[in-house]
Design a protein that fits this description.
alpha/beta; Rossmann fold; 2 domains; elongated; binds guanosine-5'-triphosphate; binds magnesium ion
Amino acid sequence: MASHRMMLKDVIKKADILLEVVDARFPDETRNSEVERDIVRSKKPFIIVLNKCDLVSKETIEKTKSRLSQIAPTVFVSVKDRFGTTMLRHKILETAGIKGRDILVGSLGYPNTGKSSVINGVAGKHKAGTSPISGHTKGIQLVNAGSRIMFIDTPGVIPFGENDEYIQGLLAVKDATHLQDPIGVAMKIIEKMCAENKTALESFYHVTIGEHEPYDVLLLIGRQSNFLRKKGEVDETRAAVKIINDWQKGLLMI
Ligand SMILES: Nc1nc2c(ncn2[C@@H]2O[C@H](COP(=O)(O)OP(=O)(O)OP(=O)(O)O)[C@@H](O)[C@H]2O)c(=O)[nH]1
Ligand SMILES: [Mg+2]
C-alpha cells in the first residue's frame, strides 16, 4: 500500500493535470481523500470524472454535478455508451491550459472505477487493458491518446483504513461469495438505493418497498426470488449474494 502511495505521488509530480475517476453510482465513497490532498498540495489542475453514468438517473447526475463542481471541474462519462469522452478531451485541453507541447494526464482513482476504460474512450482505441475483475492495471502505463494528450494509467488504490467490506463489495474488489458479511453489504446497497432511486430497486426485483427497513427489503427480495429454505423461511444469504452480484454486474441503476 505504501509503495502504491509513492507511485501515485510520483505520477502527481510528473503529470500536468490529474483525472480522479470515480464511480457515478457512489461518488463520495470513491473519492480518494489522500490522493485529493496530494493533488491540492501539488497545485496541479484536476478534473473529477464521474464514470459509469449509464447506471445513474438524470436527477442523480444533476444533484452530484452541482455539488462536486464546487470542488473541481466535473465531467460525466459513460464509456459503455460512448458518452462524455469528447467533452472530457476538451475539458482536459481547456483546464491544462498548455500550448505547443504534449499534455501529460494522470488517471487516478479507486479500483474498478473505469480509469483504463476512460483512457480508451478518450483515445478512441482499446490501448489500456481493462477487466470486470478489479486490480487489473498493475503498474504505470503510458497511453498516447492523440491530439497532444498522453495519459498515465495507474492501478486503483483504496486509502489505507478505508478498505472495508462495503467498499470491497461495491467496487467488486471481492465477489459476493468471498465477502464475510454479504448480508451486511447487501443491506448497505439496499439502503443506498432506497435513498437514491427506490423505484429502480422495486421494478428490478418486482417488490413494493414502502417504508420497510433494509433487512425486510432483503427478505422481500428473497421471497420474490423464491430463495426459500425447507421450512419456507427466506434464505437471506442467497438473496444478499444475488443483490451484490446484480450490483457488481451493473444491472442496478441508481
Ligand atoms: N456500466 C459501465 N461499466 C463500465 C464503464 N466503464 C468501465 N466499465 C466496466 O468497469 C470495469 C472496470 O473497468 P476498468 O477500466 O478495467 O477499471 P479500472 O479503474 O482501470 O480498474 P483497475 O485497473 O482494476 O483499478 C470493466 O468491467 C468495464 O467494462 C461504464 O461507463 N459503464
Ligand atoms: Mg485499469
